[in-house]
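=== RUN LOG ===
request id: a7f3
mode: sequence -> structure
chains: 1
length: 475
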Amino acid sequence: MEMARLIATTTFSFYFLLLQSSSNLALSQSLINFLPGFEGPLPFELETGYVGVGESEEVQLFYYFVKSERNPTDDPLLLWLTGGPGCSGFTAFAYEIGPVNFKVLEYNGSLPTLVLNPYSWTKVANILFVDSPVGTGFSYAKTSLASLTGDFKQVHQLCQFLRKWLVDHPEFLSSPFYIGGDSYSGLTVPALVQQISNENEEDIQPPINLQGYILGNPLTEPIIEQNTVIPFAHGMGLISDELYDSLKRTCGGQYANIDPSNADCLNNIQAYYTAISGIQTAHILEPICGFASPKPQEFLIGYRRSLNQHPHQEILDPEPFPPPFIGCRSYGYLLSSIWVNDNDVQKALKITKKNGVGWIRCNYGLPYTTEIGSSFSYHVNLSASAKGYRSLIYSGDHDMIVPFFGTQAWIRSLNYSIVDDWRPWILQSQVAGYTRTYSNQMTFATVKGGGHTAPEYRPAECYAMFKRWILHDPL
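=== RESULT ===
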């Protein structure tokens, strides 16, 4: 093992020198030992930086990198993408799978406080959280033309990002590598996995030790997923049997693209919206709160007609929180904007200022083109690959944005035989969800009580799920 690692390091030191001599390798990185709002030195290794991509490196992608708290040398490397498109990697870093959380207290004018996340996935993996596509978080473009982006451009730039980052971090060249993401990233992650696999076969250097991918609450087949929202609502007791039967009869079970001349279907759809108007679609058990909804307009590019994106009050009317507003999950999102936009925080993170534009957690104003209407074909190709890529697909079972009904449907349509049939998976003697494994090395899991996305609502369960899977243990 050590000999292989030595050979890899020597070989890719050569590639690093080659790249340096042939181009301006724009890589800046800083080790961060202290963060404002966190008491004492960080008990984990944090690095931030920019990687220049594009022909003239006119796009600068910002990242947060956290080394595994267990064994960085032997543990896998995970590249994580947040959905949107346009939501910063800081979302995953501070609200989902990263090493810190905000201490949610009523804002009193002081800097919000950070505390350790006991269920961080960085306890067993090295994780790169990237602000992608350009214009997300602290990533920026040097020209207006370079700011134009989309699905395929994002995938291409992330391939460049990753190879440059690995050349600059040769100690991770031989690490098992995985790509993960949630929500809208269900469209782009499979394309990125396919692109890296293709480039490896083409002997693009440095080679990446690609092992598989992870997707949470993933947008994959929008038509299928939209058509399962109403069955999900009925199954969860949100609409009556009579309305559901009438919807099926008048709409033919097709709710994604409704014929505008079908008056009976449209009337039933309106009745459906009336019935669910008080439901928080990110998690049907949580309250709807004003001002900052949990993920308002998440992944809406190319998905704006979705039934679950009916314009609810919390999106249209930015009213103040009703007391006690700190009881609303969305209040915690306000803390990130306050914290990240603090000058001392940006100095600590070694941020390059970009035209005085403030940081926002999710930038929905990106000049972004949706080009991948469905990522199903990528799953087909990756499942059939001789490389034997592993995959973990999980769903919060109270997510009404991308219901697990739809995720199960497209997985079934891959037509792979079942290796480990439907069963509960357990944490601390309790059912944490249900799982099934297929012959294409794909594991599907529900997270009981999880929303969109599952780790934010059920961190302990999701950490246990990830740890077992990444260590090749059964859920």
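=== NOTES ===
The domain at 2-222+372-470 is CATH 3.40.50.1820 (Rossmann fold).
The radius of gyration is 22 Å.
=== END ===
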